[in-house]
Amino acid sequence: MVLLDLKLPKIMGLDVLKRLRENERTRLVPVVVLTGSREESDRYNSYTDGCNAYVQKPVNFIEFADAVKQLGLFWMVLNQPPPHNPPHTENGG
Length: 93
Description:
Elements: E1 2-4, H1 13-22, E2 31-35, H2 40-48, E3 53-56, H3 61-78
Parallel strand pairs: 1-2, 2-3
């Protein structure tokens, strides 16, 4: 899982997301945008570019730490990742 902020020092977070999705090795890695942005366009563009979730960072550190913990639990324990290979079907599809 990648926690991605949109506001990075040298590159825009959406550019990182696009690169992750273009790369065969990282295109299926879950990406959670974790950002302070409240801009609807940022949320829209994040989903359009392939993020799996968009979470606004809580301002309070304890709430932030709790949010990150909950995200980790969901993605690492509850979420079912995609299979490593495409499924085989009886009709060859």
